[in-house]
Specification:
alpha+beta; HIT family, subunit A; binds adenosine monophosphate; binds zinc ion
């Protein structure tokens, strides 16, 4: 989608630190990491938010990619957090649905 920063990252028009890619999913390091590992997982298809993501297969693909990458990073045992900010109350700033994965260290117990 024109003007979408994550679509530009997926197309390689904006540089990113790629962590994972398959035919449906792209994952890259967050530019402002909030933990030792802070990775964003996005569908290649432009979908603005979790509310608009209604396709089971896309959700499956993203979560299997998260499982694969966290295992490869060796944080599947120590733990990690998956978070999706959806809409204004959650403070979503980029309107291409994405899942934050944070790990590699002890995380805050604050959820809000
Ligand atoms: P959210 O607030 O959940 O919409 O998260 C958007 C995230 O995208 C933030 O954590 C930003 O640091 C991250 N972000 C924005 N632009 C870039 C970029 N060019 N490369 C990597 N991460 C980015
Ligand atoms: Zn997009």
């Amino acid at each position: 989608m024109d003007g979408c920063i994550f679509c530009k990252i997926i197309k390689g028009e904006i540089p990113s630190k790629k962590v994972y890619e398959d035919s449906n999913v792209y994952a890259f390091s967050d530019i402002h990491p909030q933990a030792k590992h802070h990775i964003l997982f996005v569908p290649k298809q432009h979908i603005s938010g979790l509310t608009e993501l209604n396709d089971k297969e896309t959700l499956n693909n993203i979560f299997f990619a998260i499982k694969k990458v966290t295992k490869e990073l060796g944080i599947d045992g120590t733990g990690y957090r998956v978070c999706a900010n959806n809409g204004p109350d959650a403070g979503q700033t980029v309107f291409h649905v994405h899942f934050h994965v944070l790990g590699g260290q002890r995380l805050s117990d604050k959820m809000v």
